[in-house]
Write a structure and sequence with these properties.
By secondary structure, the chain is mainly beta. Helices cover about 5% and strands about 50% of the residues. It has one helix at about 60-65; strands at about 1-5, 10, 15-25, 30-40, 45-50, 55-60, 70-75, 80-85, 90-100, 115, 120-125.
Length: about 130
């Protein structure tokens, strides 16, 4: 299982980015996928999770505040995270992770819930 996150970059506060998580060597159809982020000196925290079908989505409300949207296109083997109205506190390395299951469990925001991790992509939001 290999995942690769991309789409990060430098953006001004209030701007938008769309992150992509592409799977290689396997199909994402049967995996719940989550986005996490890790800021310097802080623990990795869950941002959002989407079930394998895309029918169920979850957000860390305290983090997202209605600004992010997770989606997936299984035909493209890709999961997206649309981030709008970015704030400097969103600056972090963003990672996608796959769960060996179709649902986002109640503990989805814990790193322990996920088996496979991709390399992260840096998001920097300037004030």
């Amino acid at each position: 299982v290999q995942l690769q996150a991309s789409g990060g970059g430098l953006v001004q506060a209030g701007g938008s980015l769309r992150l992509s998580c592409v799977a290689s060597g396997f199909t994402l159809d049967y995996y719940a996928i989550a986005w996490f982020r890790q800021a310097p000196g802080k623990e990795r925290e869950g941002v959002s999770c989407i079930s394998s079908s895309g029918g169920d989505t979850y957000y860390a409300d305290s983090v997202v505040e209605g600004r992010f949207t997770i989606s997936r296109d299984n035909a493209k083997n890709t999961v997206y995270l649309q981030m709008n109205n970015l704030k400097p506190e969103d600056t972090a390395v963003y990672y996608c992770a796959a769960d060996n299951g179709v649902w986002c469990g109640s503990g989805w925001s814990s790193t322990l819930a996920f088996d496979s991790w991709g390399r992260g992509t840096q998001v920097t939001v300037s004030s």
